[in-house]
Amino acid sequence: MEAIITLNNIEKSFGEKQVLKKLNLSVSKGEIFGLLGPSGAGKTTIIKILTGQIKPTSGEATILGTNTRYINDKVYAKIGMVLDNSGLYSRLSCYDNLLMFSSIYGIDKKKIKEVLKKVELSEAIRKPVSKLSKGMVQRLVLARAIMHKPELLFLDEPTSGIDPATCLKIHQLLLELKESGTTIFLTTHNMEEASKLCDHIALLNEGEVVEYGEPDALCRKYNEDKKITILLKNGQLVTLQNGAASSKQIYEYFASEEVESIHSSEPNLETVFIALTGKELS
Ligand SMILES: Nc1ncnc2c1ncn2[C@@H]1O[C@H](COP(=O)(O)OP(=O)(O)OP(=O)(O)O)[C@@H](O)[C@H]1O
Asked: Where does the record place the ABC transporter domain (predicted)?
C-alpha cells in the first residue's frame, strides 16, 4: 500500500524537554489511522509536525510525498485540518465563514450549501458562530476542512467534549470520507472511537509508540487473561477464568438454576494500554 504519511526517527524537544523520541510510523493511502495516548503523550505535537506548523528537532516526516519541513500551498490545497483552534469568525454566519474560506482557497461557492447539508447545518446557515452549540461548531470546522475534498484529513480530538449524537454524525461522515478515498489521521483519547473507526492505531506513551496494529488484533494479542463473569440470581457476581478449569463450576451454577446472566469480558484498547504502560488512556 502506498504510504501517504511517514515519520522516520522523528524527535522533538522543547528546550530541555524531549517530547517525541525516535518515532517511526507510516499511514497508508485510504485508511483511517488513529493515534491514541493520554494527555501530554505528544499527539498534537505530531500533528503539528505533519502539518508543517512546527519542525522536528531531528528525523524526517513526509505527507503526500513532501517533506513536512517544506510544505507549500500546493500541498495545503490537498489537506484538511480539524484542530483545536477553530479559527472561525464568531460574529459571522456559518455561510459567511465558509465563503471567506472558499474565496481564499478558490473553491466554488456552490460547494458551501452542499457541505453545510452534509454536516447537517443547513438550518443554521445564517446563524452566527457565536450562537452555535459546541457540537455545531465542530461540524462547521469539519465542513470547512472537507469542502475542498482533501486527499488527507487531520483531526485532533474531533469529538472531545461533544455530545453522543454529534459524535455519531461525525463518525458517519468520517467513514463516508474514507469510502470516497480520503486518508484520515486522527488523535483521540477515546478507545471506542478508535476501535470503531480506525484501520490501524498507534498507542503513544511519553513520546514513544508502544504498540501499533489493527484495533481488534491488538485486543486479541493482549487477550491472555480471558474472564467470564456470572451474575447469580442472589445478586452475587462471580468472576472465573475462561477455560476448561472453570467448566465444572459453571456447570454446577447452571444445574442448580442459579444463573441470572453470563458474560465473557474481552480486553479493549484501554486494557491493552494499561497492560503496556500501567497507565490509563484517559
Ligand atoms: N510549544 C511548546 N513549548 C513547550 N512545551 C510544549 C509545547 N508544545 C507542547 N509541549 C509539551 O509537550 C508535551 C506533549 O504535548 P502535546 O500537546 O503534543 O500532547 P497531547 O498528547 O496532544 O496531549 P492532549 O491530549 O492533552 O492534547 C506536553 O508535555 C506539553 O506540555
From this structure: 5-231
Strand partners, 66: 63
Alpha helix segments (H runs only) across 121-277: 134-146, 164-179, 191-197, 215-221, 247-255, 269-277
Q: In terms of domains, do 150 and 247 share one?
A: no
Close Cβ partners of 233 (under 8 Å, ≥ 6 residues apart) = 257, 258, 259, 260
- Any atom of ligand 1 within 6 Å of the Cβ of 14: yes
Q: Look at residue 163 and tell me if it is in a domain.
A: yes
The protein residue with its alpha carbon nearest to ligand 1, atom 9, reads 45
| Closest CA to ligand 1's atom 6 | 14
Q: What is the mean pLDDT of the chain?
A: 90
Give burial (CB, 10 Å; 0-12/13-18/19+) of 15.
Answer: exposed
Q: Which residues of the chain have pLDDT under 50?
A: none
| Residue 207 Cβ contacting ligand 1 at under 6 Å | no
